[in-house]
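User: For a benchmark we're assembling, each entry needs the component sequences followed by a predicted structure for the full assembly. Here are entry 17's components. Please fill in the structure.
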Amino acid sequence: MAMATFTVGAHSKNPTKTVVRARNFEMIIDEPRNLGGTDTGPTPVEYVLGALAGCLNVVGHVVAKEMAFELKGITFELAGELDPAKFLGESTTNRAGFQEIRVKVIPDSNASKEQLDAWLKTVESRCPVSDNLANTTPVQLTL
Amino acid sequence: MAMATFTVGAHSKNPTKTVVRARNFEMIIDEPRNLGGTDTGPTPVEYVLGALAGCLNVVGHVVAKEMAFELKGITFELAGELDPAKFLGESTTNRAGFQEIRVKVIPDSNASKEQLDAWLKTVESRCPVSDNLANTTPVQLTL
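Assistant: Structure for entry 17:
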């Protein structure tokens, strides 16, 4: 199968607000007022958590179909902590991003605990977003 | 400084569409029709690229201010390739996610090439999203 290429364009509206264009869709990214922003959209790291949920949903349904159990839907609760010191340029030994990301996955299904455990393990290994977060991904920034 | 916690909630609307709630904001995530989706929003991996742009914008402005050069705005072009085979459960040795992410950063500034090179290097090291992508981030999935 051919590789799939994804591209987006983005530009700043102000120092905290970014407008992203992905095909015919737009995302508004901003920071809340207590972080100096104009609070017109989710923060970048909230988008990361959202992207992970969206990916787990798609792959979750693909894998449930393969495993032949009924999946009526999935609810997700995601959380992560980061130390803003690094981002703000203060002295810290902490990393810039989330130290870990926790995802509570609540499938609406009558499948057994054993089936769901196997399902979740497969979903994690095949989800592009969890792969890019859990493993190293080269990020090439150029001017 | 205290750690900052970010949380979002999400639920599936159908096998490809996810509605994410982040504070008072909503994200709609979906797949295009040629990937079996209902095409009501960007894909999860497009959200990852968008989140990276939004993060680089915020940190870019913080660092430009510290370096005391004028930054009128930033434009970004982002791209990545992934092999859908893994996600679809086909046989492949490729990883599930983006093999690399390329970001063209176009600052609207009169700063020198040397200043901008130093700026970009600092921005990359302090951006939470580029940190979470470029380095390993534990993702804990639980039922």
